[in-house]
């Protein structure tokens, strides 16, 4: 640095600003960088946008496979029956509320996914992890920390056999 370029006459001048390098990211360069970053963000979020659009516009309304759960004679009134639906990893609970009244729910608590059990004495479903309670008739939470109902499974009873047909979508 020559004596002419020094902004101050002091000998102990210690600033670390180099004027020639300050201009490497000017307004145009900054805008190009921001447009590039926005483009990268847009491209990287496309898969999530597709998933959201599929859910919002019901493109995901795939039909689940009809699956036999049990025979009517296997489930007495007031009793429950454990099964898996729609995959072998999704445990579910069938409850016979009356002679011709059956309900089925996926039995993972909507709070923290603990298993939910049928309590015949209190006529409700209980999550023992955090004392969550669900109505057997609707699957709605009646007590404890859960705020969302259990996912309901549509049933068909045909020729003395109970079938799971579809998991109903959660609606807020």
UniProtKB/TrEMBL annotation:
Task: List the Gene3D superfamilies.
Answer: Rieske [2Fe-2S] iron-sulphur domain (2.102.10.10)
By its UniProt entry, which InterPro entries does this protein fall under?
Rieske_2Fe-2S (IPR017941), Rieske_2Fe-2S_sf (IPR036922), Rieske_Fe-S_prot (IPR014349), TAT_signal (IPR006311)
Sorted UniProt keywords: 2Fe-2S, Disulfide bond, Iron, Iron-sulfur, Metal-binding
The Gene Ontology terms for molecular function here are: 2 iron, 2 sulfur cluster binding; metal ion binding; monooxygenase activity; oxidoreductase activity, acting on paired donors, with incorporation or reduction of molecular oxygen
Q: Does the keyword Zinc-finger apply?
A: no
Q: Which PROSITE patterns match?
A: RIESKE (PS51296), TAT (PS51318)
Q: Where is the Rieske domain?
A: 67-164
Q: Does the keyword Electron transport apply?
A: no
**Protein name in the entry:** Rieske 2Fe-2S domain-containing protein
Annotated organism of origin = Salicibibacter cibarius
């Amino acid at each position: 640095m020559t004596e002419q370029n020094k902004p101050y006459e002091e000998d102990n001048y210690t600033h670390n600003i180099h004027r020639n390098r300050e201009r490497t990211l000017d307004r145009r360069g900054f805008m190009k960088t921001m447009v590039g970053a926005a483009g990268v963000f847009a491209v990287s979020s496309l898969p999530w946008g597709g998933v959201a659009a599929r859910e919002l516009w019901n493109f995901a309304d795939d039909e689940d496979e009809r699956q036999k759960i049990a025979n009517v004679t296997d489930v007495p009134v007031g009793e429950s029956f454990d099964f898996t639906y729609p995959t072998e990893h999704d445990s579910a609970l069938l409850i016979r509320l009356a002679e011709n009244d059956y309900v089925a729910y996926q039995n993972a608590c909507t709070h923290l996914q603990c298993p939910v059990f049928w309590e015949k004495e209190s006529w409700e479903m209980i999550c023992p992890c955090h004392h969550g309670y669900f109505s057997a008739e609707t699957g709605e939470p009646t007590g404890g920390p859960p705020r969302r109902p259990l996912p309901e499974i549509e049933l068909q009873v045909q020729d003395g056999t109970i079938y799971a047909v579809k998991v109903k979508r959660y609606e807020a």
